[in-house]
Amino acid sequence: METSENYRLSEPLIGSNIEHEINPHDANKPVDDLEEIKSVRQFFKYAAAENNTLWCLAGPAIITSIAQYSLGAITQVFAGHLTTLELDAVSTENMVIAGLAFGIMLGMGSALETLCGQAFGAKQLYMLGVYMQRSWIILAIMCLCLLPIYIFATPILLFFRQDREIAVLAGKFALYMIPQLFAYAMNFPIEKFLQAQSKVMAMAVVSVAGLVFHVGFSWLLIVQFKMGLIGAAIALNTSWWLIVLCKFTYIALGYCPGAWSGFSWLAFRDLGSFARLSIGSAIMLCLEFWFYMFLIVLVGNLADAQIAVAAVSICTNLFGWQIMIFFGMNAAISVRISNELGARRPRAAKFAIIVVLMNSVSIGVFFFTLILSLRDVYGVPFTNNPEVVRTISSLAVVFAFSLLLNSIQPVLSGVAVGAGWQWLVAYINMGCYYLFGIPVGYIIAFPLNLGVQGMWGGMLSGVGLQTIILIFITLRTNWKTEANEANSRIQKWGGSLKNDMENVTSNRDNAA
């Protein structure tokens, strides 16, 4: 079978700067696809090539995710060596208030994974920059809507029957963290813009540099200058904005030719159609983020709430680090799926899913084994309180199964984002997490009196149900149909940008 040089599996679109677009007259013309695999040897040959492609994307994306997540996690580590109350306050703000905002901002920004990824695969680079600016506008408006949550964090936490001391101090810390909210709004569209073009190494370098800066700055303000939570807030806000400004500088200096041509008034066109996909993306991801936020809130209603909240916060902190690895895999498979569907290569898209699942399950088994082996000591670096360490140890089994199960779920969500199924997955998440998982966890924890282990275990059943449904949908998907619909999806959710750009080009030519 003759293979196109631009679309060979072992030579994907990574790093290419193709600036022309598919001829509209060829819209229904099939593009060379991955040939049918007829032997085990051939499977492993293509798997090795796809694995190399995957890790070229996933490796830097994982580093970026871990580094950015570690900003908040490192702050929790420093707070944990102040007092248990301050650890609880920072953890509650980080997991509940900032977690709420993080989920919404990341979710709405993830609309660009579908649009920018498929536009890049279709070689319509000129769309990417305006898409990113539209996302900035929508996310900035959402920040203003979220401000009351930060301002009234204490009464909100008290409404959910949180410990008063924790609620008051967490509310105070939330006020300090308002600048971080607006950094989220800038960061995630930039991130998805770069990911779609496989500019992932630049993101990794900036994020790691920001993390190194954050560790040093936090130590200086919290340990040396004894500034407590104020110092923690200054360090965290500064680090996030430093990362945002460095990424934007990289783009503005011309390292994304064809995709960024400066600010444009076209960003204000068709915001409604663009916002619909952004809202679907936000609902899909927020329902996942809020699920673990609810775990913190419900645990706060147990007896001896301070110990329980501290233990679960430390576990979810560690869980977040592991999840960031799979968010990197999520980003990689989203780019692979959206690029291949945009280029109308359904077999290559399907094969990429198989390879990424093989990788993610292997990593999940490793973490599962690691936590069970270190069950008595893995909480020690995070707290000086022996009672909290014992509670963390008692959660080892349910925590290990969470790590194993969540090695698959984020990858399947990445497939959904790459294919543009955000609204479908949002409905699935609502049913599995909130109509099934949380009620089961609540019944086991309270009426059956099994405490925090019962709560987490019951909620984990919701994750399991969601994973099974996503696997079923992925297996039943007709990827040829998805590839054919990718171009119409860009037009539907992208609005009239193409016509606008053609008009701008025509006017320039006439003026010349």
Automatic annotation (TrEMBL):
For membrane topology, the record states:
Multi-pass membrane protein
Which terms does the record give in the GO molecular function aspect? antiporter activity; xenobiotic transmembrane transporter activity
**Compartment(s) of residence:** Membrane
Transmembrane regions: 95-115, 136-160, 166-188, 200-222, 228-253, 274-299, 305-327, 348-372, 392-412, 424-448, 454-475
Chief location category: membrane
What cellular component GO annotations does this protein have? membrane
What this protein is called in its record is Protein DETOXIFICATION
